[in-house]
Amino acid sequence: MISTMESSAKGFPASPPTIELPLRGKSGRSGRNLAALLFDEFASKIRNGLLAEGEKLPTESSLVQTYEVSRTVVREALSRLQASGLVETRHGIGTFVRAAQPASTLMLNADELTAAVDVMAVLELRISLETESAGLAALRRSPEQLQGIRMALQAFEIAFARGEDTVAHDLAFHTQIAEATGNRYFGDILRHFGAQLIPRTRIASIHQPQRDPDYLRRVNREHEEILAAIERQDADSARAAMRIHLTNSRERLRLAQKTSAA
């Protein structure tokens, strides 16, 4: 586990902390467990004021080196922090601590609890499918396909600014990325599911402006990160950005399920 150590004035370890890394055949500690530990470490620092509003978190590379974990573990922990509303990522700048948010009162009704099981299953499929889709799109996209992705994102932004429905543009953004892979099966699968791919079409409580006015703004920022990576043909960053985006959706749904079951 992450050991308790003296912290610097900014709340970061004075020397590299120790995390028990999984040993094959000897430890049940998985990457997800390590991500949870890293999430808890930073969530605690933020909630206790050791990391102040607006403060920039270390880079992914720095966290990998300091905590001696994989980049996947770091990205999973950061995605959980984003989903919890504790941090926000600004394209090309870094990840920053957000202002304190009011306690979530998100609840799912009986019908939504039933639908949430299917939505969670689809999200798990999408994380696997679209993470690779984004990486391939970054490597293979044509200028025309890149423009199609950009136009879908711009349409999302315009609809959001006008207070109009964004679901069709959200779906178009993901479908355009699938098309840019050059493998028609990616697009076929997304079109098969259609608008049901977007959680808020089936779980109304996930998007309640009066409780979470920044929901679509966060979705848009996540989309911008994906587009930027595809534009510069950075396959690894495109995969990471897509994974963070979809993992955030999964974590928001998971928090809603946990609250409703309490």
UniProtKB/TrEMBL annotation:
What Pfam families does UniProt report for this protein, alphabetically?
A: FCD (PF07729), GntR (PF00392)
> Keywords assigned by UniProt?
DNA-binding, Transcription, Transcription regulation
List, in alphabetical order, the Gene Ontology terms for molecular function in this entry.
Answer: DNA binding; DNA-binding transcription factor activity
Q: Per the record, which residues fall in region Disordered?
A: 1-26
Q: Which residues form the HTH gntR-type domain?
A: 32-100
The record's section on PROSITE patterns has: HTH_GNTR (PS50949)
Q: Which domain of life is it from?
A: Bacteria
SMART domains for this protein: FCD (SM00895), HTH_GNTR (SM00345)
Entry's PANTHER family?
Answer: GNTR FAMILY REGULATORY PROTEIN (PTHR43537:SF44), TRANSCRIPTIONAL REGULATOR, GNTR FAMILY (PTHR43537)
| Name of the featured protein | FadR family transcriptional regulator
